[in-house]
Specification:
The chain is α/β, with parallel strands linked by helices. The protein is about 35% helix and about 20% strand. The chain contains nine helices and 14 strands. It has helices at about 20-25, 70-85, 100-110, 135-150, 165-175, 215-225, 240-250, 260-265, 265-280, and strands at about 10, 35, 55, 60, 90-95, 115-120, 155-160, 180-185, 185-190, 190-195, 200, 205-210, 230-235, 255. The strands form three sheets. It has an eight-stranded parallel beta barrel, surrounded by seven helices. Strands 3-4-12-9 form a four-stranded antiparallel β-sheet, with no helix packed on it. A two-stranded antiparallel ribbon has the order 10-11. α7 packs across α9 (about 265-280). The chain is globular. It starts with 9 loop residues before the first strand and ends in a 14-residue tail after the last helix.
Length: about 300
């Protein structure tokens, strides 16, 4: 993944793995390629009021609202423990403005995190737009972060939709200095409580994830990997190693596992082992032998 060395292409997605402490009681989290932390902000955030989760037949709606202890508490209390596990750590960050993204990245620039993922696409923050829906806004955030990162690799996490097209946004991220694009965040979605006749979530719209969105996310990865020169990280509904292989064949360099962790806490290591067995069974020396083969 560019300058970030992953032992395998399976990454725990931000927002679905906390800071790894709970999963670390279940298995050795360094078996994963990397861990994307919970979204970090400049100051602590309490998140959105409940309810925050709503199950659907093939997925999950969430409206967490970036609850986190703030970047300074992360550096002080969470990062040292995470690094002792041996895991590769990707810090996911969010800002209410380009200046705030810059400040959070600056706080992380000299830390032991292995890379920084800019969350340009959180659907669960009331009143805040998503810079990842606009190429110029994306370029501004990534450019500011690039200057503040002091050489730390930057990934850009994009939304699933953009009015002028997601390809233009991904290309803007690349030109501004992102070393990978991650596609895609959860899809904006709605649930109505039929007992009250009102939207379930205080923020009305929530983010949909899980198996239902996998074909949509796969199409996005297929399209982006044709149009950018930097690695694409596939995200969306991946629950099995076979799903992960599909994303790699569509052009992904790595995949992030999110909602699957709630279905099965062992989903990550199971997918890692499934991919290893697939490589051995096919006699593959590297993922480059099949990466993007769906384009040929």
């Amino acid at each position: 993944m560019g300058r970030v060395l992953l032992g395998n292409p399976v990454v725990a997605a931000s927002g679905c793995f906390g800071f790894g402490a709970e999963y670390g009681e279940v298995y050795d989290i360094s078996r994963l390629g990397a861990i994307c932390t919970k979204g970090l902000t400049l100051r602590p955030r309490a998140g959105n009021p409940p309810p925050r989760l709503w199950e659907t037949p093939c997925g999950l709606l969430n409206s967490i609202g970036l609850e986190n202890p703030g970047v300074e508490a992360f550096l002080r209390e969470e990062l040292p423990r995470l690094k002792r596990t041996g895991a590769v750590v990707i810090a996911n960050v969010w800002g209410a403005s380009p200046e705030e993204y810059e400040q959070v990245v600056q706080a992380l620039a000299s830390s032991a995190v292995d890379a920084i993922e800019l969350n340009l696409s959180c659907p669960n923050v009331p009143g805040k737009g998503m810079p990842g829906r606009d190429a110029a806004a994306t370029a501004e955030v990534v450019g500011r972060a690039r200057a503040a990162a002091r050489g730390k690799p930057l990934w850009a996490k994009l939304p699933p939709e953009a009015p002028a097209g997601l390809v233009a946004v991904a290309q803007a991220a690349q030109e501004a200095g992102a070393e990978a694009v991650c596609a895609a965040n959860s899809f904006p979605a709605l649930a109505v409580d039929i007992r009250t006749g009102r939207p379930v979530f205080a923020n009305v719209v929530a983010g949909m994830s899980g198996p239902a969105i996998k074909p949509l996310a796969l199409r996005i990865v297929y399209e982006l990997s044709r149009e950018v020169d930097i690695p694409v990280v596939g995200i969306g509904g991946i629950t099995t190693w076979e799903d992960a292989v599909e994303f790699i064949m569509a052009g992904a360099h790595a995949v992030q596992i999110g909602t699957a962790n709630f279905i099965d806490p062992y989903a990550g290591p199971r997918i890692v082992e499934g991919l290893r067995a697939f490589m051995e069974g096919r006699g593959l020396g590297s993922w480059e032998e099949i990466r993007g083969c769906a384009h040929r």
